[in-house]
Design a protein that fits this description.
alpha/beta; single chain; disordered N terminus; Rossmann fold; globular; Dihydrodipicolinate Reductase, domain 2
Length: 353
């Protein structure tokens, strides 16, 4: 690991300049002691937009290029942040490892498939690089606050949890065209694209499941993959955690993309609810009233500024030595569980995982 004193800025290269990469770029520009060295975008048509964006953020010495090697020779990179489509991940991770970059960050869906991700993890093992998957949902402020509450054991023994995903963006022939049109042609959609976040959130909050039940369906004929369905994680102590997703339905929220839905966690001594505006409340067993759990969050960019929180977590590791979550070697379990969910749905049977 490079040893950094607080004076040295961390050099960051972002690969990609598409829709979601902009959130990464914004967050790096806002992080103290980080220097955004370069943005690598192979689509030259996007370069002017990126230049305008950087000018508006007063970051005029960031290089915009279509070549990773040009970016690497521009300055010393501590972090390479890969925010490109999954098909390019394996190659870019390998190039970054070969360059000797200490921290490599990779967007999800990590390497596109469990099989590819597993072979990439083998290569990582034989290098000094740390590869972190940019799985930002667990860094949404409400899940950090829920984790703090669960660590107090205020709900007693957890027996039930359910998250209802209701973004309301999946109706009609034009579904997803405005923001992420590639959603329309993904052969695996609801679980692969969105449900994987909740596989990770459930693991973060509740630990490792032992078995899975699932049922998936496609409701909108204009798209290729599934857009509704559920999976249930079964735990040895009898607990169940259910993801119930439907992209055609919405929930009560000013911004249905803030939390993407609502959650209820129930234990022998109480229940905890997450609402569409990010509010959390707790009800003790036997009570009829809910009490607010107060916590602060910044409602900017995406998901309560979770991209910033994720990237701050990574820069804290380099600057202060704090431990890293979402290392590729651990994250790959999410992809294994994703495969198991598709298998369980196809088999229409409870499946060991």
């Amino acid at each position: 690991m490079h040893s950094h004193n607080m004076q040295k800025n961390l050099g960051v290269i972002v690969m990609g300049g598409g829709y979601f990469a902009h959130f990464h770029i914004n967050a790096w520009l806002r992080l103290p002691a980080v220097k955004l060295l370069a943005i690598v975008e192979t689509d030259l048509a996007k370069h002017q937009d990126l230049k305008d964006k950087l000018r508006s953020q007063h970051s005029t010495d960031t290089l915009i290029t279509d070549s990773l090697s040009a970016a690497l020779s521009y300055g010393e990179a501590d972090i390479i942040d890969i925010a490109t489509p999954p098909a390019s991940h394996a190659t870019l991770i390998e190039q970054s490892i070969n360059h000797g970059c200490p921290i490599i960050v990779c967007q999800k869906p990590f390497c596109g498939s469990y099989k590819t991700a597993k072979s990439v993890c083998e290569k990582i093992k034989h290098s000094n690089a740390k590869v972190v998957v940019h799985e930002n949902f667990r860094f949404q402020p409400w899940y950090r606050a829920i984790k703090t509450e669960l660590n107090k054991h205020s709900l007693g023994t957890l027996l039930n949890a359910s998250f209802r995903l209701r973004p309301g963006d999946g109706q009609g022939p034009d579904a997803y065209l405005a923001r992420q049109p590639y959603f329309r042609t993904m052969p695996r959609f609801l679980i692969h694209e969105t449900g994987v976040h909740f596989i990770d959130v459930f693991r973060y909050l509740f630990g490792e499941p032992q078995a899975v039940t699932a049922e998936l369906q496609r409701l909108n004929p204009s798209i290729t993959g599934e857009d509704a369905g559920f999976f249930i994680f079964h735990y040895n102590n009898g607990m169940r955690a259910q993801f119930d997703g439907n992209r055609l339905l919405d929930h009560a929220a000013d911004n249905t993309r803030l939390t993407m839905g609502e959650m209820l966690i129930e234990g022998t001594q109480g229940s905890l609810a997450l609402y569409g505006n990010g509010a959390l409340s707790l009800r003790r067993f036997g009570d009829i009233h809910w009490t607010d759990i107060s916590y602060q969050f910044n409602d900017i960019d995406f998901g309560g500024d979770c991209v910033f929180n994720t990237q701050q977590h990574i820069s804290d590791h380099l600057q202060r030595g704090t431990p890293l979550e979402n290392l590729a070697s651990d994250y790959v379990r999410n992809l294994e569980l994703e495969e198991t969910i598709y298998d369980a749905a196809a088999a229409k049977a409870k499946t060991e995982c």
